Amino acid sequence: xxxxxxxxxEEVVExxxxxxxxxxxxxxxxxTNKEIKAExxxxxxxxxxxxxxxxxxxxxxxxEKKPETDKEYTERFLKGEVDPLT
Length: 86
Hints:
The protein is mainly α. The chain has one domain. 71% of the residues lie in helices and 0% in strands. The chain is rod-shaped and about 100 Å long. The termini are far apart.
């Protein structure tokens, strides 16, 4: 009869161990999810920076072309860089 009493106690101990393992696994999963979410947020930020890199006009002054002199125009015309009909 003593053996019968020992077996249920062992089962209870095993159940606690399984519950503890489940809790530890759940904790690990939650920590991993937090890390993944942080990584996703970082990747999204990097994608946004790449997408906007050099494309945005905010904070930039427009580049003004200096007026072209007749001499410069003539030189470009002789090189064939200018179409006089346009």
